[in-house]
Write a structure and sequence with these properties.
Blueprint lengths: L1 H7 L3 E4 L3 H13 L5 E4 L6 H14 L4 E3 L3 H11 L4 H4 L2 H16 L4 E3 L17 E3 L14 E3 L7 H11 L57 E3 L5 E3 L9 E2 L2 H9 L6 E7 L4 H17 L4 E7 L5 H7 L7 E5 L7 E2 L7 H11 L1
Helix pairs in contact: 2-7, 9-11
Pfam families: PAPS_reduct, Thioredoxin
GO molecular function, one term: metal ion binding
Protein name: Thioredoxin domain-containing protein
Length: 356
Amino acid sequence: MDKALEKFGNDIAIAFSGAEDVALIEYAKLTGRPFRVFSLDTGRLNPETYRFFDEVEKHYGIRIEYMFPDAVEVQALVRSKGLFSFYEDGHQECCRVRKVRPLRRALKGLRAWITGQRKDQSPGTRSEVPVVQVDPVFEGLDGGDGSLLKWNPVANVDGKDIWNFLRAMNVPVNSLHAQGFVSIGCEPCTRPVLPGQHEREGRWWWEDAKAKECGLHKGNLKEDGAAQVNGNGATTESDIFNSQSLVTLSRTGIENLAKLESRKESWIVVLYAPWCPFCQAMEASYVELAEKLAGSGVKVAKFRADGEQKEYSKNELQLGSFPTVLFFPKHSAKPIKFASEKRDVDSLMAFVNALR
């Protein structure tokens, strides 16, 4: 970290929000070199978090560079969808307005940024976080791919060691930690974790437990749905839901399945688009479901329903939005649509068990 501060000077900054980031500020102070700290104020943080920010500023004699969301964008979102739309359609849109776009503005003025990501924070999304990387999502001062360096100096540090360091150095910490909050974000989207739960399970608890990222570190998510460009310059997407336990249905295959009035086995099918973040988020749960149902008399399948297949899927397969999950009962012609937004493996299994 000392070398990073020396190399980039004022063009590098520490992203600050939680306990790991206090450790980074303490490390930066110990180097004796000047450093910058910025944070995202979403307007939805806990009162304790705002007091914590003030304590950190006074303790280190610094001014945190706060980044705020665009007021017009926030107003449009709230007027059109209400204050708590994320409970119904996922947190990505709200996070994009309140966090991702402000971060993008902050990083455009930097050549590198320092984060407090640890591999043990989230086994589902951060287990492979490198110490140093070219940022796969955001652009830096020079613009374009590869223009921003991302430094994760505590990637390989255990969370317990972070807390031992904080206690030893007697630095400020968020008072919410003493109330059972481990990973702290916005007030409506954060709650204390229960004994035995992983620290990220207190974030966006109504969504898939294996996709706990808000967009700031989107590069941690599997790249199966990332857009690519083929030799003709056309945009393509790598496929998702890849597993030997899953059946890939063609247009003919799903047409034949839908026509059957009596099937030898029941089927559950996801209608998806590989570029859809909600489809990407449920991939691990759906693959796990397929593995659990192997040999059970229920076939698990996928059908790519975007592009040329979208109109057919909307007219014939009840596609409203991606993903749409359908259950084709063994002795019934009409498929049954999974209505819940909870796409974790337990919810999907309960749906199957109730119908087969």
